[in-house]
TrEMBL record, chains A, B:
Belongs to the XFP family. This is Probable phosphoketolase. Its cofactor is thiamine diphosphate. It comes from the Bacteria. Keywords: Lyase, Thiamine pyrophosphate. It holds the Pfam family XFP. Gene3D superfamilies: 3.40.50.920, 3.40.50.970. Residues 592-793 form the Xylulose 5-phosphate/Fructose 6-phosphate phosphoketolase C-terminal domain. It comes from Lipingzhangella rawalii.
C-alpha cells in the first residue's frame, strides 16, 4: 500500500485535547448505544435491569453495519459546527443509515422538537427504540420523517448529486456528503464526482465528500475498498479532489485522525472560497475529500456462532439474530450494549448527561436542525414576469407558426433575470437543442474547467447546468428544490426514462412529506420534455418513446400533473402555472419544431385554466349533439385532428364534428381518482354518451383508456397514439406509421359513425389512397408529405 | 499540462512504414469521403460532375463531428486485425457514429454482403448515401441494421458495459470500445470503468477502451477534455488502467502515434493474458486504455459563415447547412469532398481501389463481419437439467411452505454446473439476499481485486457477477446475450426501474432485429424480480414499487413476456421455459420469503403451460356458472385470494366461488394484441359474462384493466392491487393498506354479488372488524397478523 506516501494522511496531527476527545467519543458512544437499542429493544431502554427475552423485539430488523461510521462522522461534524462559522448540512448516502440519523437527532433534541412524544428522556427513548423498523413505524434508512435530511437512504446513488444541488447558491453552506462504498459502485454516484466542475466557489457553497470505506455492501466486499490505495487516491484526484485518509479501528486514534482531516478539509474549503471571493479564481481548485476506512459494524460483536462479524459483511444487518431465543446471544447483546457505558451517557431520567451534552449545540443549532434540510422554511416565491408579453399573435387559428420552446425560452430568460439567486435550468446538453437558448442572453452555462477562445456562454457564474447525465440533472435539481429553490429540467422525451427510478423516489418523498406537518411545501419539480416522439426525423426509433407519461401516472394523484399544451401560447400559460406551484411533479410535453399557432393568448390562458375544452372554431356541431367527437392531446395529434376536421368539413359538410382538446391530462380522470378530474356531468357534456370519440393522443393510446376508465364511454372511445412503430422518417410519415395521420382519423370517423360507412365508402378509399401517396412521396423525395395548411374554418 | 510526463505517450515510436502509413491513411480518407457523402449527396456520388444543388439531399440530417475519429480508429483496428492473432470487435459509444460504421462496413464489403442492393460499386454507393437519415432509411447512429455492431448508438452510456459483457467467456476476443467524451459524463459509463475488477484475464477476453476526446458534445465542451491532463490520467489509472495518449491534428503524426498506441495496448493485453493463463496471476493488472485527442469534425470545413467549425461544437451535425441554397457553401462542400482525393480512392466503377483495399481483409474477415456481433450465429442451446428434480412435495395445497427463489437457486446451480462456458447470473449484490445462494455450491462471485481471509465465494473464475449497479448488471448481460450466450438478472423489484431506459433500448433492438433476416435469434433477457412490493418489512415505502410491469407492457407484444408464478413449483416451471426461449424479454416476479406451496409439480407445469387456469381444488362452483370469480396473479395476491375463498366457504357455504389464477399475464390480452392472448371464447369460459370478478393483482390494478380492455367484462371486473400505499410494516398489513387483504376481498364479494349485500350485512361488518383487529395486532405486537393456515378444501 502506497497510500501514506501519496495520500494526504495526517497521522501526526492530534488536534483534540483530552476534553475534546472525551466529548466526541462520549457522543459517539451514546449514538451507538441508541442505534443498537433501536434494532433490538422494545423495553428496558436504559438497561436498568438485566436483559430478558421480553425486552427484545419479536422481529429483529434493521442495519447495524454502516451505523457506527455514520455516528462517528456526525459527532465530528457536530464538533466542527460548534467551532466553525459555516452552516453545515449532512447527507447520508449509505443505505440503511436510519439508526444513526435518528440517534443523533434525538441526542440533539431535534427529534423531540418535531415529535414531542419521542421525548428526550427514558420514555421517549423507549419510543425511539420501539418505532424503529416496527410495523407502522420508521424505516431502517434515512427518510422524509427524519429531521436534518433531504436525502432518502432507500435507493442508492444520489447522495452526492443531492449534495451539490443543495450547495448551489448557498454560499455559506458546507454539505458534508457521506458516500457509502457500496453506493460508490452505482452509475449516478460515479458520475457525481465530477460535479465540482460545475460549482462556483465564489457564489456557491461547498460539498465535502466523505467516502466511508467500511469495506462491504450487503454480501460482498466493495470495489473501492479492495483496489490498491494508490489507485483509489489517483481516482479521487482525477475527479478534482485532494484526499485525506483516516484509517483505523482504535477509537481514540481514529477520532484524532478524523478531527484533523475534517479541520483540514474545512480550512481548504475556506481557502478556495476566500480566493474565489477575493476574485483571484484558481483554475482548477482541488476540493478536499475525506476517505474514512473503519470496520463495518465497528464496536459490535466480533463474532457470532463462531464466525467473524465485526469487519465483515455479516454485520450488515442484525449481527446477533437470535437474541430472543438464544441465551448466549442475549448475554452477548447485553455486554455489547454495556460496552458503551450507558450510565456515563444517560442520567436517571434517561436524559443525555453533561458529558454527551458537551457536543450538543444550543437548541435548534444542531446539524439535524438545519433549516436547509426543510427547504420550505427558506422558500421564497419566484418573481415571475408576465408571460403574456411573449405571446405570439394569432389573428386566426393556424395562420402563423412558431417554435413553442423558443418562445418559452424568452420567457425563461425573464424569469432567470428576475431571480438571479433562486432559479436554475438543468439539462443534459440539450438546452440549445431544445431551443431554450434565449436564457443565454442573461446567463451562461455553469463551467469551472478550462475554456478556449471559441467557447460561448461558459462561466463559473452560469445558472444553466448542462451535463450529459440525466441522473445528475435530476439529482442536482432535487437537491436544489429540497433546500428551498426553484428550477426546471429540460430533456429529450425518450431519455427522461433514464431517471424513472429517481422520479419514483422523489414522488414518494413528496407523498410522504404531505403527511409530515413540520415539512413545509417546496417548489414543484418541473420537467419540460421536448424533442418528442413525433419529431425524431434523423434519430429514429431509439429516440421515439412517450412512456414517461405512463410511468408518471402510476404515482399518487396528489403529487403528479401532466400537461400537453398544443401550441406556443398554451405552453406559455402552462409553464407559468407550473413555476408557481408547490409540492408537485409537473410534466410538460411540448414540441420544439415550427408548428401552427392555434390560440390567441387570452383564449390559450382560459383553455389552460379549464385544462380541457371544446374548440368551437374548429367544430361544426353548433352547440347541438355532434355526430362524432375528435379529441386530441399534444401538439402533433392536435395538428392531425384539425387537419382531419378540415377534411371532414370539405368532404362531409353535413357531419356535425366536435373538436375537443386536452391540455391537462388529469382532467380525463374521475374526480374520485385525481383532484383535477372533471365531474361526470361536465365530462358527459363534452363527450356525449353514445357519440363516437376518435381521440388522437401524444403517447401510448391505452393511457387515455386508463384515465377515462371510470367514464361511461368505453364502447364509443377509439384512441390513436404511438404504438411503438417508428424509424428515421418525416413527421408526417411517423403519424402514418402509427395510424394517427389525418387520413386515418378520417377513415376512423367513417368506420365509427353509425350509418356513415356505406355512403362514404368512396371517401374512405380516397383517404386510404391519399395516405399511400403521401408515404410514397416522403420515401421518394426525402421530404415531408404535402401539408394541408389552407384550412378554412367553420366560423 | 503534465500529460507527457505522467502518461504513457509514445511520440518517439513510428511503427508504420511509409506503405503502411499510406494504406491506413487511404482507408481513412475513403471512409471520410463516404461519411460526408452520406450526409449530403443524393446523386453524383463519385463527383464525376461538378456539384449542383440537385445532387444535394433536400434535408440535410446527420452528424459529422465524431465521424473522422471513428473512421481513424476503425482503420487502425483493421490494420491490427490483419496483423494480429486476436479476434477483434468494436463498440461505437459516441452518439451518431452511424456514418462511420456504415462507411467502413461498405468499404470492407460486409455491407453489400448483407444488403446486396447496396453493392460495392457506384450504384451501391449512391444507395448508401441516399438511405442515410432519409425517410424510411437508416438512422444517424449505429443501429441493429449495422453489421459488426452489438451496440445501438442512440441512448448514451452503455458502450463499455456492453463491451465487457461481450468479453466475458470469450478468451480470444478483444473488444475495442470507443467511448465518446460526451458519453463519459453519464452515470452508467462512469461506473463501467471499474468493470475490469470483475474480468478474469485467464478465461475472459479483453476490453480495450479508447476514450475519444474530440472535446465537445452537442453544444458544450466535455468535462474530460477540459480538466488538467494529469487529472485525466490519474482518473484512468485510478480505474485500473494504463493510459496511452494519442494527440494531434496532423494525420501522418496521429497515424504513427495511434498505431504505436494500439500495438502497445495489444501487447500489454497479451502480456496480462499470458501471465494469467500461465497461472501467474497478477493481483491488479493494469489494462491499457487509449486516449485519442483529435479535433471534432477533423478534416471538415475550418469555418462556415465566418465562425470556426472544425475543432468546435459547431461541427457536431452538418457543418455546412445551406449547401443547396448557398453557392459558396456548395463550393466549400465540393472542395471538402475533393480534399479526400476520390479518384485515388475509387475506380471508374466506384469500387475501392487497391490503395484502399490494402487494408481491407479477405472476405468475411473484416471488423464489421465479426460473428461476435451477430450472436445468434454463435448461440448454443443451454443444457438445462430437469427442473422437476427440485420440485417441492405438495401432498395437499397449502400444507407445506418453501422459499421459492431458494429452490430455484438449486435449479440454477445445476444449470450453472451444466453450462460452465455460456451461462451467467447477474445481480446488484442481491443474489444471496434473493436466496439464490445455491449457485455458490458450484461457482463463485467474479472478483479480481484484493481478498481477505474472511471472504467467501470470491474468485476471478466466478460466474456470478455482483456489483452494486443495476446499470452494469443490465449492460453486461446485454453484451453477453448479444454475443451469443445466456443469462439471468436477479434484482429487487422496486429498483429494476433504474434500468427502465436500458430495457426500452433492448426491447427496441429486439423488435428491430425481428425484421433483419441476417440477425439470428439470441437468448432471451431474463429478469427475476424478487424482494417484491408486498414484502418490504423493514425497507418500507421506497422499496415498494411494482411499476416495472407497466413499463414492460408498453413495448411490442412480440418481444415481451411477464410471468407471476404463485408458488415454488410454478416458479421452477416458468424459469425453465424462459431459459429456453429466444429473442424475448422475460420478466418473472416471485417472492423469496417462505410461502405456501400450492401445486404439485405436474399440476404446476400444466398450469404454467396454460398460463391461466381454474383452480378447481379451491373452487366451489362445481363446473356450473359461479356466483363470483376470485382471480389472482402473483404470490401474495394468490395467498389472500385463497384465504378469502376459505372464508367464503366457511361463512357463505352456498356461494359458488371460482378461483382463477394467472401465471402468464399476457394471457389476459386479446389475441389481436399479444400472441399469448386467450381467445375470447376461452376467456369467457373462465370469466363468464355477467359474473362479478374480484381480481387480486400483484401490481398496480389498472394494468389488469388495461390488459383486459378488449374483453367484454368491464362492468363485472373489480381489481385490487398496489395503490401506492406503503410503509415499514408486516406483510399482512401491506395487503390491508392497499385493500387487497382477505377480509377486504370478502367484503368486495358481498358488495358485488347481486343480492348478497342485504343478507350478508353482518358478515361484512364482521370482516371489517377483523381487519381492524389485525391492524391493531400488527402495530401493537410488531408481528404479522394471525394467519389463517388451517384451510379446509372443498375437494
Amino acid at each position: 500500500m502506497h497510500g501514506t506516501a501519496t495520500g494526504q494522511r495526517q497521522p501526526a496531527l492530534h488536534p483534540l485535547t483530552s476534553t475534546d476527545l472525551r466529548s466526541v467519543d462520549t457522543y459517539w458512544r451514546a449514538a451507538n448505544y441508541l442505534s443498537v437499542g433501536q434494532i433490538y429493544l422494545q423495553a428496558n431502554p436504559l438497561l436498568r435491569d438485566g436483559l430478558i427475552p421480553e425486552h427484545i423485539k419479536p422481529r429483529l430488523l434493521g442495519h447495524w453495519g454502516t451505523t457506527p461510521g455514520l455516528n462517528l462522522i456526525y459527532a465530528h461534524l457536530s464538533r466542527r459546527l460548534a467551532e466553525g462559522d459555516s452552516d453545515i448540512m449532512w447527507v447520508v448516502g449509505p443505505g440503511h443509515g436510519g439508526p444513526a440519523a435518528l440517534a443523533c437527532a434525538w441526542l440533539d433534541g431535534t427529534y423531540s422538537d418535531v415529535y414531542p412524544a419521542v421525548s428526550r428522556d427514558a420514555a421517549g427513548m423507549g419510543r425511539l427504540f420501539r418505532q424503529f423498523s416496527f410495523p407502522g413505524g420508521v424505516p431502517s434508512h434515512v427518510a422524509p420523517e427524519t429531521p436534518g435530511s433531504i436525502h432518502e437512504g432507500g435507493e442508492l446513488g444520489y447522495s452526492l448529486a443531492h449534495a451539490y444541488g443543495a450547495a448551489f447558491d448557498n454560499p455559506n453552506l458546507v454539505v458534508a456528503c457521506v458516500i457509502g462504498d457500496g453506493e460508490a459502485e452505482t452509475g449516478p454516484l460515479a458520475a457525481s464526482w465530477h460535479s465540482n466542475r460545475f460549482l462556483n466557489p465564489a457564489r456557491d457553497g461547498a460539498v465535502l465528500p466523505i467516502l466511508h470505506l467500511n469495506g462491504y455492501k450487503i454480501a460482498n466486499p466493495t470495489v473501492l475498498a479492495r483496489i490498491p490505495e494508490e489507485q483509489l487516491l489517483a481516482y479521487l484526484r482525477g475527479t478534482g479532489h485532494r484526499p485525506h485518509v483516516v484509517s483505523g479501528s482504535d477509537p481514540a486514534e481514529v477520532h484524532q485522525q478524523m478531527a484533523a482531516a475534517v479541520d483540514r478539509a474545512f480550512d481548504e474549503i475556506a481557502e478556495i472560497q476566500d480566493q474565489a471571493r477575493g476574485h483571484t479564481r484558481r483554475a482548477h481548485p482541488e476540493w478536499p475529500v475525506v476517505v474514512l476506512r473503519t470496520p463495518k459494524g465497528w464496536t459490535g460483536p466480533a463474532t457470532a456462532d463462531g464466525l467473524p462479524v465485526e469487519g465483515t459483511w455479516r454485520s450488515h444487518q442484525v449481527p446477533l439474530a437470535r437474541v430472543r431465543e438464544d441465551a448466549d446471544q442475549l448475554r452477548a447483546l447485553e455486554s455489547w450494549l454495556r460496552s458503551y457505558r450507558p450510565a456515563d451517557l444517560f442520567d436517571e431520567a434517561g436524559r443525555p448527561t453533561s458529558h454527551v451534552d458537551a457536543l450538543v449545540p444550543a437548541e435548534g443549532r444542531g446539524l439535524s436542525a438545519t433549516v436547509h434540510a426543510n427547504g420550505g422554511l427558506l422558500l421564497r416565491d419566484l418573481v415571475i414576469p408576465d408571460f403574456r408579453r411573449h405571446a405570439v399573435e394569432v389573428p386566426t387559428p393556424a395562420s402563423t407558426t412558431a417554435e413553442a420552446t423558443r418562445v418559452l425560452g424568452d420567457h425563461l430568460r425573464e424569469v432567470m433575470r428576475a431571480n438571479p439567486d433562486r432559479f436554475r435550468l438543468f439539462g443534459p446538453d440539450e438546452t440549445a437543442s431544445n431551443r431554450l437558448g434565449g436564457v443565454f442572453d442573461v446567463t451562461d452555462k455553469a463551467w469551472n474547467a478550462a475554456t478556449v477562445d471559441t467557447d460561448e456562454h461558459l462561466s463559473p457564474d452560469g445558472r444553466v447546468l448542462e451535463v450529459l447525465s440525466e441522473h445528475l440533472c435530476q439529482g442536482w435539481l432535487e437537491g436544489y428544490l429540497l433546500t428551498g429553490r426553484h428550477g426546471l429540467f429540460n430533456c429529450y422525451e425518450a431519455f427522461i426514462q433514464i431517471v424513472d427510478a429517481m422520479f419514483n423516489q422523489h414522488a414518494k418523498w413528496l407523498k410522504a412529506t404531505n403527511a409530515i406537518p413540520w415539512r413545509l411545501p417546496i417548489a414543484s419539480l418541473n420537467y419540460l420534455l421536448t424533442s418528442h416522439v413525433w419529431r425524431q426525423d434523423h434519430n429514429g426509433f431509439t429516440h421515439q418513446d412517450p412512456g414517461f407519461l405512463d410511468h408518471v401516472v402510476n404515482k399518487k394523484a396528489e403529487v403528479i400533473r401532466v400537461y400537453l399544451p398544443p401550441d406556443t401560447n398554451t405552453l406559455l400559460s402552462v409553464a407559468d402555472h407550473c413555476l408557481r406551484s408547490r409540492n408537485y411533479i409537473n410534466v410538460i410535453v411540448a414540441g420544439k419544431q415550427p408548428q401552427l399557432n392555434l390560440m390567441p393568448i387570452e383564449a390559450a390562458e382560459a383553455h389552460c385554466t379549464r385544462g380541457i375544452g371544446l374548440w368551437e372554431w374548429a367544430s361544426t356541431d353548433q352547440g347541438s349533439t355532434p355526430d362524432v367527437v375528435l379529441a386530441c392531446a399534444g401538439d402533433v395529434p392536435s395538428l392531425e385532428t384539425l387537419a382531419a376536421a378540415d377534411l371532414l368539413r370539405r368532404y362531409l359538410p353535413d357531419l356535425r364534428v366536435r373538436v375537443v382538446n386536452v391540455v391537462n391530462l388529469m382532467r380525463l380522470q374521475s374526480p374520485t381518482e385525481h383532484p383535477h378530474g372533471l365531474s361526470d356531468r361536465e365530462f358527459d357534456a363534452l363527450f356525449p354518451p353514445g357519440t363516437p370519440t376518435i381521440f388522437a393522443f401524444h403517447g401510448y393510446p391505452w393511457l387515455v383508456h386508463r384515465l377515462t376508465y371510470r367514464r361511461g364511454f368505453h364502447p364509443d372511445l377509439h384512441v390513436r397514439g404511438y404504438i411503438e412503430e417508428g424509424t428515421t422518417t418525416t413527421p408526417f410519415d411517423m403519424t402514418m406509421l402509427n395510424n394517427m395521420d389525418r387520413f386515418h382519423l378520417f377513415m376512423d370517423v367513417i368506420d365509427r359513425v353509425p350509418g356513415l360507412a356505406p355512403r362514404a365508402a368512396h371517401l374512405r378509399q380516397r383517404m386510404a389512397d391519399e395516405r399511400l401517396r403521401c408515404r410514397a412521396h416522403t420515401r421518394t423525395h426525402g421530404e415531408d408529405a404535402p401539408d394541408i395548411r389552407e384550412w378554412t374554418w367553420p366560423h
